[in-house]
Design a protein that fits this description.
This protein is α+β, with helices and mostly antiparallel strands. The chain has one domain: Phosphatase 2c, domain 1 (4-Layer Sandwich). It has a 6-stranded antiparallel sheet. A 5-stranded antiparallel sheet has the order 3-4-5-6-9. A hairpin with a 2-residue loop joins strand 7 and strand 8. Helix 1 packs across helix 2. The two termini are 20 Å apart. The model has no long low-confidence stretch (mean pLDDT 93). It binds manganese (II) ion (MN). Manganese (II) ion binds next to loops.
Length: 199
């Protein structure tokens, strides 16, 4: 559980392991490089120690390279996770100077961008980082004022609807993330939510 606030971006996260497990197979990481805030959400396949190992190796690779854009993050993680059970990973990079979002993902970590009264779904390519890397593309889009991004693993129910959050829009990102985890976290998986908004 954490909150990171810097110039222009506020980020909050909530994460917990599969109920009863000591280790979390999900992980998240925030990296700043100049005016870029890079948010990564990782779901090590399955749960328990083997999933946690894959997630930890991915985080270690991220921390060593805060400057890498999303596509390169996925490639570096693919190499770092070779021989593990692999992971779903999605990366959102907010460039405050260019006022744009660049996004890329492999697997089923979901992203949502909410701005200008509409939602855009940010979807990853089918595949497994560390095992089967598809042909990758990243997507860039301009950020308007009052943007909000939510990213989550599949430990959050598919019934989760971002629109249900509209009334909660004024909550800070950390409380929003906890609200989503409490309300939509599945009892049979690790679960992680990261929320970021322009500030
Ligand atoms: Mn999962």
């Amino acid at each position: 559980m954490s909150q990171v606030a810097s110039q222009g971006v506020a980020v909050g996260a909530a994460s917990r392991p599969y109920p009863g497990e000591a280790l979390n197979g999900d992980a998240w990481q925030i990296d700043w490089h100049g005016e870029r805030c890079r948010i990564t959400v990782i779901d090590g396949l399955g749960h328990g120690p083997d999933a946690a190992l894959a997630a930890t190796l991915a985080r270690d690779a991220l921390m060593r390279a805060p400057e890498l854009p999303p596509l390169d993050v996925l490639k570096v993680c693919h190499r770092a996770l070779a021989g593990t059970r692999g992971a779903s990973i999605s990366v959102a990079c907010i460039d405050l100077a260019a006022v744009q979002l660049t996004y890329a993902g492999v697997g089923n970590v979901m992203g949502h961008l909410w701005q200008g009264g509409r939602r855009e779904q940010l979807v990853g390519y089918p595949g497994i980082v560390g095992a089967v890397l598809p042909t990758l593309r990243s997507f860039s889009m301009p950020l308007q004022s009052q943007w909000l991004i939510a990213m989550h693993t599949d430990g959050i129910s598919a019934r989760f609807r971002f629109e249900a959050l509209e009334e909660k829009y004024s909550l800070d990102p950390h409380r929003l993330a906890e609200h989503i985890l409490t309300g939509w976290g599945r009892s049979n998986d690790d679960a992680t939510v990261v929320v970021a908004r322009g500030s």
